[in-house]
Fold:
Amino acid sequence: MTNVVVIGSQWGDEGKGKIVDWLSERADVIVRFQGGHNAGHTLVVDGVSYKLALLPSGLVRGKLSVIGNGVVVDPHHFVAEVEKLRAQGVAVTPDVLRIAENAPLILSLHRDLDAMREDAASNSGTKIGTTRRGIGPAYEDKVGRRAIRVGDLAEPETLPAKIDRLLTHHNALRRGMGVDEISFDALHDELSSVAEHVLPYIDQVWRLLDEQRKAGARILFEGAQGALLDNDHGTYPFVTSSNTVAGQAAAGSGLGPTALGYVLGITKAYTTRVGEGPFPCELHDEIGQHLSTVGREVGVNTGRPRRCGWFDAVLVRQTVKTSGITGIALTKLDVLDGLDELKICVGYTLDGKEIDYLPASQAAQARVEPIYITLEGWKESTVGARKWADLPAQAIKYVRQVEELIGAPVALLSTSPEREDTILVTDPFEG
Ligand code: GDP
Ligand code: IMO
Ligand code: MG
Structure:
């Protein structure tokens, strides 16, 4: 028996929410360890859809859910998401939900800055296409050692100095951008207004998780975004502001790396990306439209259409290495139903030379051209398949080809948004 780390192996939206929900039946504790409410995780249970951004997906099953120190917490959003889940009948209390006291806060000034930068960059053509939720600015303040953290809300006497420090930085930026400065009182009021809603949940998460681990609990780490959005390993600068690779599960929860166990890379059977940045296999034709429509590829939080393309084995093969993936959960295979033929990108050409990896250089990433192999499609429907034997031979061939190209086996296969439409090949908790 082992713990399991779930990460996205592409550019996010691979179906992490569905798989975490499915796996959480077998888990005792579910932990978010990076990102914030830029995530949009969808679970469908008996036709009812739950959309989670900040809260761990395990809450829907009533499992102990933890927001680790690696997460950036928007307290306003927290209150709203708790309310939304309660309205759907999910119990959210400190019995089942804890927030690390050392997690940094996302405040209105972070959201403002994110939006102002994106607006300014739109005019100069250099925008990232962020979720505009203040994620980048909040992480900047964290590593800049001026963040206000969740636990600071419990110490009103130390807040004034922290507010001054944060405003010295932000007001200088705001002056430079020609917008009104933020007053001490406004920020103080904002912090005071959220404190009572957040403080009941704070905890020493590193200790709680250590105790749980010693008691034999199975811990499920829920990643957000995907490895190609990782701040180090992704398509920089078109990335998010946290590390999204599996190794972050340790630092972002307060457990050492030996606690991590099985790494499950959630992998869409094709590729999507939302926001700006390179996408070698992007399709602008009717096949891209098919993937978009049949796959319902629209961003959960921002409503933006997701860009779609063929499966890129180069990217996932790289993620298998950068995240130490043990096995993958292959999702949305059903979206490929009915296509005459399917292409898989197996390498790139860069300036006339063949390469088998994604180069780190931004300019080179923009120039690589995919090299495809072509496979025969299948006409049968795989929607809702729950057994390997329900899959057409060509679909099995596609899965086998993916495994071979990325160098990792399929542990789970997902064939619809519904929780139960999942084929188990290897139980990640059993290693
Ligand atoms: P996440 O961010 O990785 O949790 O993924 P999202 O929830 O943003 O996007 C995945 C979308 O695909 C959601 O709408 C899911 O309900 C849906 N989904 C997940 N698995 C499958 C699948 O196997 N087949 C189909 N058709 N949809 C799926
Ligand atoms: P889940 O967990 C897909 C993208 C944004 C943008 C870039 C930076 O649902 O897979 P940010 O707001 O994080 O500074 O934006 O990252 N992005 C995601 N794309 N799925 C996500 O989360 C994402 N979270 C951020 O679109 O390109
Ligand atoms: Mg998503």
Residues 213 and 219 are 7 Å apart (CA to CA). The chain has a mean pLDDT of 97.
